[in-house]
Amino acid sequence: MNQSEWPLWEVFIRSKQGLDHKHVGSLHAADATMAVQNARDVYTRRLEGVSIWVVESKHIHASNPDDADAFFDPAADKVYRHPTFYEVPDSIKHM
Amino acid sequence: MLTQDLSGTKAAAATEPSLLFPYVLQLADTSLILAHRLSEWCGHGPILEQDLAMANIALDLLGEARSYYQYAAELEGQGRTEDDLAYLRSAVEYRNPLLVEQPNGDFAHTILRQFLFDNFHYHLLRKLKDGPDAQLAAIAEKSVKEAAYHLKWSSEWVIRLGDGTDESRKRLDKAIATLWRFAGELTTPTAAETALQEIGVLPDYATLLPEMQAHTEHVFAEANVPLPTAVFAQLGGKTGRHSEHLGYLLSELQYMQRTYPGLTW
Which of A14, B57, B108, B170 has the CA that lies 20 to 30 A from B220? Predict the structure, then answer.
């Protein structure tokens, strides 16, 4: 029952109001069923959610922090990519 | 109040406090003692996630116990409160079945104890929630969802321990050898329970057995563990004849109220 033998899982919870599952943390579990149960016990004790996703952490591929400059900085001065230069007619609601 | 009207109507039974009181107390004691046992794991669980799971279940059971104690105090009508009933009764006055007072042992031992209890508890609550006593039905309605999760949790663990490593299997086998004899008491009615069954307040436990048995067979098949054939049932707890373990448990559970009577915080 050694914790280090169990894989790590990332937990995503959808709240009652939420439309999307949000990453809330991680935990250890032997398999997917146990991971969902553990997530229920660890992350939904205070009515945080109505739906749980878990995914084994090893299946998540992340961008490299060393690439951050090349990846993200070039977007900083591309203000024209934001759709903020349009006049929204008064009849269009909820924009 | 009604005196000896056992003639049959369910409404009459539901208003007969002297019959109902000992049984509600039995339900309360059962949930409280198991909650206390599980709370002993707090900070000692095999992993953080299971430490939390057991604390969650303990709190569910404690909440259920409080509802029963409050109802029992009301039924008794002698001015005792839920705290008096929980903290100021001696071991021989406790009515919990022997199973729930058994020490935690190792994790497999705790899991099997929980599984045996959950399998009964869940199926009982499913009947009680549709029973004639409105208060019991309301408590059962709330608790049955919790019990459904408890049963799911302990069942999954029986499967994993049974079908896990040689070590986990060995420990589960040991737990079965120790605890199986205490399962039968849950579904063996006492005289008080029989009286309530006869007037329809309690389900006949025989009607719970097929579903309980089917679930046990399913779980043990998944776990690759042969179903124990021993049918001997050690009785006693529900009539106040307890194992030595309960006294030690109560001395810890009741310590504060015994030492500082009336203490609140």
Answer: B57
Report the pLDDT value the prediction gives residue A86, as an integer from 0 to 100.
81
Count Cβ atoms below 10 Å from residue B153 Cβ, excluding itself. Answer: 23
More confident residue, B231 or A17: A17
Tell me, yes or no, if B166 comes closer than 8 A to chain A by beta carbon: no
- Answer whether residue B148 is part of any domain: yes
Write the CB contacts of B260 (distance below 8 Å, at least 6 apart in sequence).
Answer: none
The answer to whether residues A1 and B47 touch, using CB atoms and an 8 Å cutoff, is yes
Tell me the average pLDDT across A52-76.
Answer: 92
Nearest C-alpha in A relative to B59: A45
Whether chain B has a CB inside 8 Å of the CB on A34: the answer is: yes
Find the domain containing B65 and state its range.
Answer: 13-259
ipTM for the assembly: 0.74
For residue A27, which residues of chain B lie inside 8 Å, CB to CB? 48-49
Domain ranges of chain A: 3-60
Asked if the C-beta of A13 comes within 8 angstroms of chain B's C-beta atoms, the answer is no
Angle between the N-to-C axes of helices B48-76 and B17-39, in degrees from 0 to 180, rounded to the nearest 10:
160
Reported as a single tens digit per residue, the pLDDT across B48-75 is 999 999 999 999 999 999 999 999 999 9
A57 pLDDT tier (thresholds 50, 70, 90)? very high
B52 at A interface, C-beta within 8 A = yes
Contact yes or no for A28 and B46 at CB 8 A? no
Give the distance from residue A79's alpha carbon to the nearest chain B alpha carbon, in angstroms.
46
DSSP letter (8 states) at residue A86? S
Q: Which of A6, A33, A45 sits opposite B156 (nearest CB)?
A: A33
Which of the two residues, B139 and A48, has the higher pLDDT score? B139
What kind of architecture, by CATH, is found in domain A3-60?
Roll (3.10)
Best CA proximity match to B202, nearest among B23, B1, B15, B12: B23
Structural domains of chain B, count: 1
